[in-house]
Hints:
The complex is a heterodimer. By secondary structure, chain A is an alpha+beta fold. Chain A folds into 2 domains: about 1-30; about 35-204, 3-Layer(aba) Sandwich (Glutaredoxin), CATH 3.40.30.10. Helix content of chain A is about 40%, strand content about 25%. Chain A has 5 helices and 10 strands; from the N terminus they run αββββαβαβαββββα. In chain A, strands 1-10-9-4-5-6 form a 6-stranded mixed beta sheet. A two-stranded antiparallel ribbon of chain A has the order 2-3. The mean pLDDT of chain A is about 90. In chain B, a hairpin with a 3-residue loop joins strand 9 and strand 10 (about 135-140). By secondary structure, chain B is mainly beta. Chain B has a single domain, classed as Immunoglobulin-like (Sandwich). The model of chain B is unreliable at about 15-20 (pLDDT under 50). Chains A and B meet through helix 2 and strand 8 of A and strand 4, strand 5 and strand 8 of B. Copper (II) ion binds near residues 73, 85 and 109 of chain B.
Amino acid sequence: MIKKNQYFLLFIMTAVIALGVLVEVVFRRPYSFHGTVINPPLPVTDFTLQTANNEAFRLSDQKGKIVLLFFGYTSCPDVCPVTLATFKQVYDNLGEDSQKVRFVMITADPDRDTPDKVSEYVARFSPEFIGLSGNRSALEPIWKQLGVFVEKQDSGSAAGYLVSHTSSVYVLDPNGSLLMTFPYGTTEIDMANDLAQLLKQSKQ
Amino acid sequence: MKIIKLLSILVAAVLATSACGGSSGELTIQDAWVRPARAGENGAAYFVITNGTTADDTLLSITSEIASATEVHMSMGDANGVMSMQMQESVTLTARDKVEFKPGGLHVMFVNLTRDLKVGDTIPLVLNFENAGSLTIDVPVKAP
Ligand SMILES: [Cu+2]
């Protein structure tokens, strides 16, 4: 009887140690981001654009929040709604943490997209999302600084010109510096995990 | 008894997969859906066309009564992550193969919708093929 109990104890001890090693391996492994990390982060020049009712949106007012920027246009029925639908899933995935993140779409087509139009377009996915437009003179420096390619394209489509645009998502850290980009097609799970990790790091 | 049951399930599964391979001998359109949008905007529809016949076919055009124009577009991304759309004159459907219309790729593009597309609505679409002729499908509006 005594022997049996000792074996059992040995078994329990071995199991506990094995579990400890497993936890160590799984959880202590440094987190590897799915997005492309910009190191060191690139400070972004402050900008002001317009949202619904021509209200001003200034980047520096978002200090303390992570800002997700996406460039698109409202006449785009295919790629842009996909990214906004992903945004919505990321938003839901983050739970309470979503309040520490701003989800922003900036137009790549200021000639057709008014601030109201972009705002209304993104609000369909979530009332928390921010849609921005402005003068070309305000938008072009932002595109240029972040390396966003924007070009009108004559397509032969009845839709008039189409706009080729960079479809990545840009992640600005709570200080307003470019920290990471997500290529088009990054899943909502990968994005949400990366953002949760960034929020965890910024708390330390 | 158990083994017979298991075997019959297996046989059914194999039959089901081979049926998906497009050997039905017809051209079929499946899994169609339209993205919700509002009047005045552009919209998009998606589906899978399976050419189960032994001859190549061509999708020549698509017609609908819900927009000023109905076109076929292809979204494409380059190595730098720049996305653009290109209008397609036609789409080749290889014999015994399928072509998938999906977000970020081939799509039906509705230019200037004449009505709102709300989840739950159904939209008739006519697809005109070189060999298969005109096929009308009812496409549900769905949130992606
Ligand atoms: Cu299109």
